[in-house]
User: Which sequence fits this backbone?
């Protein structure tokens, strides 16, 4: 059987619009991402899903100002979310182990959200059609 995991973001007296993101599986996480953060949004963040032991840098510097929360355990592996504020510009994220990202932002009347690229490598054998 199959399942699809996504995340919707709406919180309290929210500004902007709700957004929905679909995450790639952990088997497709990467060790590097280059991400753009568009101009004219009130608030921008990147959420990093990683093992607690993963060392991650942003533009080759340690992460600062990030909120760290546990996500849970998947197949015996513990993951945490690191939510870091960003400003407009381009960013390079690098990690000692594969990690996933979601970037989002909002303003008074809109929002955006996207996930980082997946490795798009085969992770299972497709059964033959009969």
Assistant:
């Amino acid at each position: 059987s199959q399942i699809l995991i996504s995340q919707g973001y709406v919180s309290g007296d929210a500004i902007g619009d709700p957004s929905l993101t679909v995450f790639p599986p952990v088997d497709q996480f990467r060790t590097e991402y280059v991400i753009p953060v568009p101009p004219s949004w009130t608030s921008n963040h990147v959420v990093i899903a990683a093992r607690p032991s993963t060392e991650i840098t942003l533009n080759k510097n340690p992460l600062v100002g990030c909120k760290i929360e546990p996500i849970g355990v998947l197949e015996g592996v513990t993951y945490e979310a690191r939510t870091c504020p960003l400003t407009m510009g381009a960013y390079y994220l690098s990690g000692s182990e594969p990690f996933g990202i979601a970037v989002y932002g909002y303003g008074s009347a809109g929002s955006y959200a996207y996930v980082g690229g997946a490795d798009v490598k085969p992770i299972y054998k497709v059964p033959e059609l009969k």
